[in-house]
């Protein structure tokens, strides 16, 4: 059976559509690719802009009279399904391959027109892994925006006062929310946005995805994890640093030193052909040898701070994309952009996480992050 690729949706939140077409649209578009040549169907509202901006073989309208009639009669999904099926039949196609998140209603509408719809894997996942120089630069630009935001956080932390074991700035309680607001403002000023920025401190930092832990304590780690997305390139950055105002406990200092050592160990192993599982195992071993634990089998240890997540993940048009750097069967390739982010967490001691974003090169890696790792702000 002859087969085509079909993508559908608005491209702000469907990165594969944006990656394949280069067209950023707030309303749904339809993309049909046959033998490597793609046609992008857009509304009349977007037709002129798409002709100028889209990187496709052809741009077409989908709001002709027949489409409008179907949309007002049988409904939107039926209209899109009939249009998609008609265009596939015109190209001699009787089978469409779609992404796992493709709308079920649209898939059924296409199948009602006697077109087979298949979805068993993410589309273009391997191709999207191999970042071009321009894509790597886009990630680096987002990373620089995040680094500038950390500069502002450090300035506030350096000037913070300690009262009864808690942090104050300008006479007011210094909270996670205040730091997140500073971060978001700096990112916006640099053309980026972020959802879920983390500025968690104290025992709240023991939860790796805790965003806002409220009033921040002195003497305990404050984890700053920023993953901004450029509003123009749509590429993400990802960086984490951990700071303490005051003096940490001896255990926390040991945690920090172990995480930093594990981070450097992981970086030393990044190269084409390196196995994700080997890198993650080396990180867990480093932490284990320092007296801590990890959730990976063989490195569990009760009653001590532990690493409870993977070592890293891919970064690009999604903040979490292939490849994963954890206990999985994945092999690094030149062009992969990945994070390296070991961490340790304890309800009593709080948390430590250190994260850089790097690109795998032909002979190793290039760090897209250029920021110190000291725990003192």
Q: Can you describe this structure in just a few lines?
A:
The chain has helices at residues 15-21, 44-53, 65-73, 76-90, 104-111, 125-129, 133-159, 176-189, 250-269, 276-289, and strands spanning 3-9, 29-34, 37-42, 58-61, 95-97, 116-118, 161-163, 166-169, 172-173, 192-193, 198-201, 222-226, 229-230, 239-243, 293-294, 306-307, 312-314, 321-325, 337-340, 343-346, 350-353, 356-361, 364-367. The chain has 377 residues and is an alpha+beta fold.
- Poorly predicted regions: none
**Number of domains as seen in the coordinates:** 2
Helix content: 25-40%
What is the CA–CA distance across the termini?
62 Å
- Oligomeric state: single chain
CATH architecture call of the largest domain: Alpha-Beta Complex
Largest sheet: spatial strand order:
4-3-2-1-5-6
Average pLDDT figure = 95
Looking at this structure, what is the CATH superfamily of the largest domain?
Creatinase/methionine aminopeptidase superfamily
Predict the CATH topology of the largest domain. Creatine Amidinohydrolase
Biggest sheet layout: 6 strands, mixed
Q: Using only CA atoms, what is the Rg?
A: 24 Å
The percentage of residues in β strands lies in 15-25%
Count, helices: 10
Shape: elongated
How many β-strand runs?
23
The class by helix and strand makeup works out as: alpha+beta
CATH class of the largest domain: Alpha Beta
